[in-house]
Design brief:
The protein is of the alpha/beta class and 359 residues long. It contains twelve helices and eleven strands. It has two domains: 243 residues, 3-Layer(aba) Sandwich (Rossmann fold), CATH 3.40.50; 107 residues, Dihydrodipicolinate Reductase, domain 2. The mean pLDDT is 96.
Length: 359
């Protein structure tokens, strides 16, 4: 089969984990631990090539992608090198892509070109490289920058995977534009493979399925990478909190009042690096209104969580391109994203995704 030709916006930790994970499976051809789907539409993980890349870091722009994924402030070091990533990282417009707490960590290039000039060069790079699918891995809070790249995807006839909590696939106007161009979009806000939100959703659904009623719940997350540093700027968190909260609220038959649910990033602890700690508590009542509560502590590698899901989103988007299907891809988005256009239980979403893959 043809290769899946992918471009990436944001050569950060999450993307570095995605690429290094692919390299791991290329080197260990019998290893399939950690893959939710070994094949999707005939595509394996080894069929993905990264043919264009865009970033704003001074130590990434102008370097090969195989070098840039190891550049500071990226922490992921699962393999010593990667193959098939010789493309040179090109300049992206900064717009609102860098927060006040991460500017020193990222060390952005000094931009002398206008956004229009950068857009023209980006379009040329995407078209010349044969990119058919763009993955958005910009930092949380990058509203204008994400909209810039969604527009570029439309202009270059690329599918779009929105891994961050800026609402594109779940926004009617943006979804309509992709549908009219017959371009697939998967979004918004990538779910972790085994992460806080997916675990919280499943526990919530379990309580309801067993006849209990939930009175209040929280999810507190801390981590040590630039994602958590960026989220210290609370103004960038509005869409993130909406995305994570609604992912859990959607599993409830009766919504909790705002005072009885808290879900969101809480603090940055540098020595944790790429580790993410999640603390989840659910309080409720069971038979005869007798109260219960449960608490869970989850300790995971944040970037493995992202890569383990994005690998499937990429292959689903390519399958949709092969089939000529445009607009928001509902089953892939419902299973792989926190804020899809249509929420489902994870069990239902998995079943519908399997049906969708089979056609």
């Amino acid at each position: 089969m043809d290769k899946i030709e992918v471009g990436v916006v944001g050569v950060g930790n999450c993307f570095s984990g995605l690429v290094q994970g692919i390299e791991y499976y290329r080197r260990n051809k019998t290893k399939r631990t950690g893959l939710m789907f070994e094949k999707i539409g005939g595509y394996g993980v080894e069929d993905i090539d990264f043919v264009s890349a865009f970033d704003v870091g001074r130590n990434k722009v102008g370097r090969s992608l195989s070098e840039a994924i190891f550049a500071d402030p990226n922490y992921v070091d699962w393999v010593d090198s990667v193959s098939g990533c010789d493309v040179i990282v090109k300049e992206s417009p900064i717009l609102d892509g860098i927060g006040v707490y991460t500017v020193n960590e990222i060390d952005p290039i000094e931009q002398t070109k206008s956004a229009e000039e950068i857009e023209k060069e980006a379009i040329e790079e995407i078209e010349n490289s044969g990119t058919k699918l763009l993955v958005n891995y910009l930092p949380v809070g990058s509203q204008k920058a994400t909209e810039f790249w969604a527009d570029v995807a439309l202009k270059t006839k690329c599918a779009f995977i929105n891994c961050i909590p800026v609402f594109i696939a779940s926004n009617e106007k943006w979804e309509k534009r992709f549908r009219e161009e017959r371009l697939p979009i998967i979004g918004d806000d990538i779910k972790s493979q085994i992460g806080a939100t997916i675990v919280h959703r499943v526990l919530t659904k379990l309580c309801l399925d067993r006849g209990a009623e939930i009175d209040r719940t929280y999810q507190i997350n801390v981590g040590g990478n630039t994602d958590f540093l960026n989220m210290l700027e609370r103004e960038r968190l509005e869409s993130k909190k909406i995305s994570k909260t609604e992912a859990v609220q959607s599993q409830l038959t009766k919504r909790l009042d705002d005072d009885n649910i808290y879900i969101g990033p809480s603090d940055f602890i540098p020595f944790l690096g790429n580790r993410k700690l999640a603390f989840i508590r659910i309080e409720g009542r069971m038979y005869a209104d007798v109260p219960f509560n449960m608490e869970l502590r989850l300790d995971v590698n944040d970037k493995a969580n992202s890569g383990g899901t994005t690998i499937d989103a990429i292959r689903c988007a390519q399958l949709a391109l092969d089939r000529g299907v445009g607009g928001a891809l509902i089953p892939p988005s419902a299973y792989l994203m926190k804020r899809p256009p249509k929420q489902m239980s994870d069990y239902e979403a998995r079943a519908k995704l399997n049906e969708w893959i089979r056609g």
